[in-house]
Every structure is written in structure tokens, then in C-alpha cells.
UniProtKB/TrEMBL annotation:
Official protein name in the record: Alpha-1,4 glucan phosphorylase
Function, as annotated: Phosphorylase is an important allosteric enzyme in carbohydrate metabolism. Enzymes from different sources differ in their regulatory mechanisms and in their natural substrates. However, all known phosphorylases share catalytic and structural properties. Allosteric enzyme that catalyzes the rate-limiting step in glycogen catabolism, the phosphorolytic cleavage of glycogen to produce glucose-1-phosphate, and plays a central role in maintaining cellular and organismal glucose homeostasis.
EC number(s) on file: 2.4.1.1
Enzymatic reactions: [(1->4)-alpha-D-glucosyl](n) + phosphate = [(1->4)-alpha-D-glucosyl](n-1) + alpha-D-glucose 1-phosphate
Length: 808
């Protein structure tokens, strides 16, 4: 698409879609005009492919996810369409990057799980797989984080306020969803015994479609997000005849369902509204698939041939019972047939072993929201447990553990068990995690059917996280190996040949320095802290969680601080420690960790004795947009979770892809990253998952580590002295007391190995050629971690899905 054509398109859209004369157009107006023009091109592809995508023999994947974190669309869509340079030319002198930067991001997710879903859409589109991402169009996404006096303050996210050019409302595909009420039995006209569900509420789900364009592939996938609206005609006709205000109330009540994203990451909230959200989007999505299936002339007997449905964690697991309900209650299919279809339709991805994240719903709550589903679940469970009994007669313990209903105390519906029973395949998200899924999480299911368990190691899209975020490095790589690596990441391997090339190393260092200089400017503008771009940028960005151990990082910072104070002439590699991440609003310890980081930053940054050797920065409001500025500037990537706790991690991949070296434990995908880049190019420390288990089993006493290590004791005492809290000796006591008394995440045990490993990092960074060589090798060996590879594995091994056009 030539610059002239784009220029005309921008002018047209400024005129006709935005309605502003060029003379007075603001940057926001220009953003909109460009975005409309890009959307036009995406729509063109979308419409052109309609036939191919909907051919009767085309099988589709539906990716059901309560979260999607796509990031701003404009920059990425320009890149994927291959028109960024021409768009720049078309704008002759105007600042395209300024316009791109104006876009609000759809923060419809919490962290890794939502971002993974977005990476997979990018790859599905790029590889021409027929796919739809189904989710919720939250009116308010993840809160914006600001920092006041060192504490996190949550501010409502208003992403829809400026309007959202990328979505198209499709009221004609709206679906009605029932909630609450009771069930009745009746005999149908053939004398058959049937059940119907009489709800006490109905809401309407209206889909909003955002087509996601693939990288230079001419292909799109659809992100279809459901928004809740009131069923107006229903109100007036059946309930509130003439009751206008009652109907308005009902409207507000209905719209609540898609109002706000629950901001908890790997933590249960257990709220009725959350269950309603889950059911709402699942019911709309299943009905939408049934509609499509029938429209394409198929019968529901072939539902599983038309659709495979991936459950992104257990949030959409109710889909198993909903498809059964549709097939049995509505379409009068015999139970066995319906169950066979259901089992062939679903597969389930587990994303965590953290016990507090495993979803379970109190039975009374579940029954009051979804009375018919509870009955169906009982029936699924009865048949399933009968089968188990014939295989393991008399093993009541096993039966209790496998049951979808937890009856050990107060009764619960276990969503993971429902997902397991209703799926043909379950997968973990990294090799180690997938092993733990078999041995720790679902050992009884594994005994029952080991073939059902698979691994698909996570991946990330190189388009957004290198091509778009790091144009400097992209150009440098293109210059050496051409540009095909962006859709074939294994080709980065060809960079290995240049790892020792001094000229290439210098270019590599120059790009990194430019990226760090840019980030330093952002840090100064957003926090007032001045950092030195030539210092080592040591970065930990991710949700704040005790298991991710941001506070272990802090213990290291205080260790260095203490060393400098004891020895004012100490020579260490100057470092900038950068943190970013949100804490769940109700997670006290996580919020206190943020306060600790900011308090240590305040003390350290203004202490002249530190001689600017260390700077500590907490960059507020970590999100996709900010991440894109951070990854390219990283020298060191902190992946320091307690072994066995991080299912995979994906930030670890993005940072390494941008040339950061990793300091990390043998956890999640770190294990595979280390395998790929080579042990000599990875800073490993800490307990393994087996060692951690043994330590705990033997009666772990964290206090022993502290008392046996004077430096560690000094660090804890320094925190408790009030030095970082204006004399308040109690402020951080919940953290230090937990570390000394319980230390669930084994910081005390891993402290010394971590600090020693950091010393190795310090030394390694002084040899810049060697460091740069390691950095180049890290990038060269990241091919495996492309989401293209991951999506192909899902398609080949789980979905049995083919691209609808042969790959170019
Ligand atoms: C896992 F269970 C969950 C969750 O509720 N939210 C979430 O972001 C993350 N995750 C894991 O913590 C990461 O290790 C993993 O890489 C990511 O999901 C994607 O699989």
C-alpha cells in the first residue's frame, strides 16, 4: 500500500469518520483517522476471507478466556499489515509514534494468563488458523495504578471513554442468558421426561467484534467480547408491566455483569457476580457456536467436528455443563451422545498450582445461580464416579479426591475437576509445570488416564515484543540475517555466527544503550528519579506476589546498600533496579511489598554515601504499553520465584528475546530457557523444586538461616530499625516476621545463593564483550519461545486443526 494511498485514506477518514477539518485536527483526531484507515484494511481482509473461513469442512478453535490483554492495537496492526513505513511517509513530518502512543489499551486481564491469550490470537492469525477468542467486554478493565506516598492507589480504568475504534457491535448476534431460579420436570409431546429451567433473571449478551490481523499473512481471527445489557422487552412484558423505574433498575442490574474485571491474579474472590460473569460469557459463546454450526448446515451431532474449545484455565469450565444442557435439554439429545460430543469438544489448560487459585464454588451459591447446571454436574459426577468405582473398587479416598463435588467439609463444586472430567486433554504451560500437574495436582486423574496429559510450553509473539517494541534491535538483526525471522523465530539462530563479531557487538551495545536512554527519560518524566543509562538495568516486572519474591530482590538491594555503607570505597557495578507490577487490591502483603520497594528507593536514592552506585525505581502502572518500553532496555531479567510455584512465566521469554540475561531459579519455563540458551549464558541459583519439597518436609526453620548469616541478619534488622520507614519500626514487621517465622516461599533459604549469584552478575557485566556475546546468544536461541510454535503444538496435538490456507 503506497504512501499516496494511505495519505488519501487518512484524509478521507479525518473527513468522513472523524469529522474534523485538517486545519484544526488535534493529535487525537489524527490518531482516530489513522486507526480508521487501518481498520478499513483489516476489515477488507476479514470480509474477503469470509467464504474460506466458513467453508463446511473448516474446523475452528474457540479460545474461551475470561481475560485478554491485547495491548494497544494501532502500532501492532500497522506492523502486521506491513505498512508502518509507508504510513510514516504518508504523514510527511507528522509524528506517527505520538499518535500510536495516544491509544488507551484494553486492560481486560490481570497478567500472564490474559496476555498469553492475546499472543495466541496474534499467532493464530499469523498462521491462518480459523479461530475466535471469546471473552468479556469489561467496561472497566484492570485498574490504573498510581503511587501515593509509596503505596499503591487504584484508579478506575476508563478505556472506553475515548471510544474504541477497533470494535464493531453486532446486536443481531445477541444472546439471551438465564440466571437463577429453579428447574421443573415435564413430559414432552413424545412422552419423554424432560427438564426445563425457569430463571429469575435474564440478561442479554451483545457481542463486540475486534478482528486481529496476522503478521503479513492476509489472515484475521476474531476477538468476540460479550457485553451485558438488559432484556428490555422481557421486563415490560412479563414482570414490570408499566413499571418504568423498575425496568431501569433491572437495566442497571443486568449491565453489572460485564461492568468490571476482578483484579485478583491467582487468588479466589468467590463472589456471586464473578460466577455470573463466567457463566454469562460462556453461555453466550456456546450459543454462538451452536448458531454458527447450524447456520453452516451442520447438525449438532457434528458439533465437535466444527469446533474445538480451549478452556483457558477453569474460569470458563462451566462450558462443559452448559454444552450438555444445550444438547440434552434444548436439543433433546440422549445423554450418552451429548456427553461423547462434549468430551470431544473441550480441552483445558492449567496455569497454576497455587492452591489459593483453584476455583471452587460453595454448593448453595452455585445452585442459586445455576440450578440446572448443578443437576447436570451431579449427573456427570454420578456416572463418572461409577466408572471410577469399577476401576478402583473400594478406594473411597480416591473417589472423594476425583469427585467434582468436594464433600470434605462445607460442600463445593470443584471447577478443575469439572474441566478434567469434561475434556479430552489437559495441558500445563511449561515442561516442569506439566509434570507437576500430573504428580501433584491431579495424580488420581493421571492414574485414571495418563494419555490425557500434555505439555505445551508457553510462547510470546515476537511481533509485538520485538518487532514493534524494539525497532533498533529489529533493524540490527534484519541487517544481518534478513527479516524473515519475525515469522520464523528459529531463524534467529543465524545470529550465533555473529556473537563474537566485535563490530556486531558494538552495534548491539549501542542499540541497548539507546533503549536504556529512552527508558531513563521515561523514568525521569514519570517518577522524577534520574538514572544512568550506562548502569546495569536490573528489571523485575510482573504482578506483585509473594511467590514471585520481589522482596528477595529487595533483600539483595539492601545487602548492597549495607555493604556500601560499611565500605565507602567499595567498587561494584553501578545498577538501576527497576520494578513494575500491580498488587491485587485486597492482597495486603503484596501492597506492603510495593511500599517496601518505594521506601527503600527513597532512602537509597537520596543517600550521598551510595555515590549513585545503586538506584531503585518503582515504575507505576505496569501494563502492556509500558512493558513495551521496558523490555528493550533490560540487561538483567529477574525470574526468581520459588521453584515449583511459577507455572511458566512469559516475561522471562520477552526479556530474554530483547537481549536481557536471566537470573533465575529452576522454575517454570526458566528451565527450558536455560536449556536453550545454555547454562553458561544463564545465572542460575537456588533450591530446586525437589529440594524445596524436601526442605519443607524436614521441618523448615527460616530463623536458622537468618541467624547463621550475619549479613542477612543485618538486612532484616535494618528493615526493622525503621531506617526505611521514617523511624516506624512496625511498618514492615508483617514482612520480616513472616520471613523469620513461616517464610512460605523460602526466601531465607535462597538468600545466600541469590546474593552470591548476583555477585557473579556484577563481575560478568564488567566484561562487556563477554556480556554482549551472552546477550546475542540469548536472543539467537529464543526461537522455541515464539507463540507460533506453541500455537502449532496446540493445533497439531490437541485441536487437530489445519490452517485454512496453506502457509506462504
Ligand atoms: C496463572 F492461574 C493463573 C492466573 O490466574 N493468572 C495468571 O496470570 C499465569 N497465571 C502464571 O502465573 C504464569 O506462570 C504463566 O506464564 C501464565 O499464567 C500463562 O500461562
Amino acid at each position: 500500500m503506497s504512501p499516496e494511498i494511505l495519505k488519501a485514506a487518512f484524509a478521507d477518514n479525518l473527513n468522513f469518520a472523524v469529522g474534523r477539518p485538517a486545519e484544526i485536527a488535534t493529535p487525537e483526531d489524527w490518531y482516530q483517522a489513522i486507526a480508521f484507515s487501518v481498520r478499513d484494511r483489516i476489515m477488507h481482509r476479514w470480509v474477503r476471507q469470509f467464504e474460506k473461513r466458513n467453508a463446511p469442512d473448516v474446523r475452528q478453535v474457540a479460545y474461551l478466556s475470561a481475560e485478554f490483554l491485547p495491548g494497544p492495537h494501532l502500532g501492532n496492526s500497522l506492523l502486521n499489515l506491513g505498512i508502518t513505513d509507508n504510513a510514516r511517509k504518508a504523514l510527511a513530518g507528522q509524528d506517527l509514534d505520538l499518535y500510536i502512543g495516544l491509544e488507551e489499551e484494553p486492560g481486560l486481564g490481570n497478567g500472564g494468563l490474559g496476555r498469553l491469550a492475546a499472543c495466541y490470537l496474534d499467532s493464530l492469525a499469523t498462521l491462518c488458523y480459523p479461530a475466535t477468542g471469546y471473552g468479556i467486554r469489561y467496561e472497566f478493565g484492570i485498574f490504573d495504578q498510581s503511587i501515593k506516598d509509596g503505596w499503591q492507589v487504584e484508579v478506575t480504568d476508563k478505556w472506553l471513554l475515548p471510544g474504541n475504534i477497533w470494535e464493531i457491535k453486532r446486536p443481531n448476534f445477541a444472546q439471551v442468558v438465564k440466571i437463577g431460579g429453579h428447574t421443573e420436570t415435564y413430559t414432552d409431546e413424545h412422552g419423554a421426561f424432560r427438564v426445563r429451567w425457569i430463571p429469575d433473571r435474564v440478561v442479554v449478551g451483545v457481542p463486540y467484534d475486534t478482528p486481529i490481523v496476522g503478521y503479513l499473512s492476509d489472515s484475521c481471527v476474531l476477538l468476540r467480547l460479550w457485553s451485558a445489557e438488559a432484556a428490555q422487552s422481557f421486563d415490560f412484558a412479563d414482570f414490570n408491566r408499566g413499571d418504568y423505574y423498575g425496568a431501569v433498575e433491572e437495566k442497571v442490574f443486568s449491565e453489572n455483569i460485564s461492568k468490571v474485571l476482578y483484579p485478583n491474579d491467582e487468588q479466589l474472590e468467590g463472589k456471586r457476580l464473578r460466577l455470573e460473569q463466567q457463566y454469562f460469557f460462556v453461555a453466550c459463546s456456546i450459543k454462538d457456536m451452536i448458531r454458527l454450526c447450524l447456520r453452516r448446515g451442520s447438525t449438532l451431532e457434528r458439533f465437535h467436528e466444527m469446533f474445538c474449545v480451549q478452556l483457558n484455565d477453569t474460569h470458563p469450565a462451566i462450558a462443559v455443563a452448559e454444552l450438555m444442557r444445550q444438547l440434552v435439554d434444548k436439543y433433546a439429545m440422549p445423554w450418552e451422545r451429548a456427553w461423547d460430543i462434549t468430551r470431544r469438544t473441550f480441552s483445558y489448560t492449567n496455569h497454576t498450582l497455587m492452591p489459593e487459585a483453584l476455583e471452587k464454588w460453595p454448593l448453595p451459591l452455585f445452585g442459586s445461580v445455576l440450578p440446572r447446571h448443578l443437576e447436570i454436574i451431579y449427573e456427570i459426577n454420578r456416572r463418572f464416579l461409577d466408572e471410577v468405582r469399577t476401576r478402583f473398587p473400594g478406594d473411597e479416598g480416591k473417589i472423594a479426591r476425583l469427585s467434582i463435588i468436594d464433600e470434605s467439609g462445607e460442600k463445593y463444586v470443584r471447577m478443575a475437576n469439572l474441566a478434567m472430567v469434561g475434556s479430552h486433554t489437559v495441558n500445563g504451560v511449561a515442561a516442569l509445570h506439566s509434570e507437576l500437574v500430573k504428580t501433584q495436582l491431579f495424580p488420581d486423574f493421571h492414574d485414571l488416564d495418563p494419555k490425557r496429559f500434555q505439555n505445551v510450553t508457553n510462547g510470546v509473539t515476537p511481533r509485538r515484543f520485538l518487532g514493534l517494541s524494539n525497532p533498533g534491535l529489529t533493524r540490527l538483526i534484519d541487517g544481518r540475517i534478513g527479516d524473515s525471522w519475525l515469522s520464523n523465530l528459529d531463524r534467529l539462530r543465524e545470529l550465533e555466527a555473529f556473537a563474537g563479531d566485535v563490530g556486531f557487538q558494538q552495534d548491539w551495545m549501542r542499540v541497548k544503550l539507546e533503549n536504556k536512554t529512552r527508558l531513563a527519560r521515561i523514568i525521569r518524566d514519570r517518577t522524577g528519579v534520574v538514572v544512568d543509562p550506562s548502569s546495569l538495568f536490573d528489571i523485575q516486572v510482573k504482578r506483585i506476589h509473594e511467590y514471585k519474591r520481589q522482596h528477595l530482590n529487595v533483600l539483595h538491594i539492601i545487602t548492597l546498600y549495607q555493604r556500601i555503607k560499611h565500605d565507602p570505597r567499595l567498587q561494584i557495578t553501578p545498577r538501576t533496579f527497576l520494578f513494575g507490577g500491580k498488587a491485587a487490591p485486597g492482597y495486603f502483603m503484596a501492597k506492603l511489598i510495593i511500599k517496601l520497594i518505594n521506601s527503600v528507593a527513597e532512602t537509597v536514592n537520596q543517600d550521598p554515601a551510595v555515590r549513585d552506585l545503586i538506584k531503585v525505581v518503582f515504575l507505576p502502572d505496569y501494563n502492556v504499553k509500558h512493558a513495551q518500553n521496558i523490555y528493550p532496555a533490560a540487561d538483567l531479567s529477574e525470574q526468581i520465584s520459588t521453584a515449583g510455584k511459577e507455572a511458566s512465566g512469559t516475561g522471562n521469554m520477552k526479556l530474554s528475546l530483547n537481549g536481557a540475561l536471566t537470573i533465575g531459579t529452576l522454575d517454570g519455563a526458566n528451565v527450558e530457557i536455560r536449556e536453550e540458551v545454555g547454562a553458561e549464558n544463564f545465572f542460575l541459583f537456588g533450591l530446586t523444586c525437589e529440594q524445596a519439597a524436601r526442605l519443607r518436609a524436614g521441618g523448615y526453620n527460616p530463623g536458622d538461616y537468618c541467624h547463621g548469616d550475619p549479613e542477612l541478619r543485618g538486612v532484616i534488622e535494618l528493615i526493622d530499625s525503621g531506617l526505611f520507614s521514617h523511624g516506624d519500626r512496625d511498618l514492615f514487621r508483617p514482612i520480616t516476621a513472616h520471613l523469620l517465622e513461616r517464610d512460605d516461599y523460602l526466601l531465607m533459604a535462597d538468600y545466600r545463593p541469590y546474593v552470591n549469584c548476583q555477585q557473579e552478575v556484577d563481575h560478568a557485566y564488567r566484561d562487556r564483550h563477554h556480556w554482549t556475546r551472552m546477550s546475542i546468544l540469548n536472543v539467537a536461541r529464543m526461537g522455541k519461545f515464539s507463540s507460533d510454535r506453541a500455537v502449532r503444538e496446540y493445533a497439531d496435538n490437541i485441536w487437530k486443526l489445519k490452517p485454512f490456507a496453506p502457509e506462504a
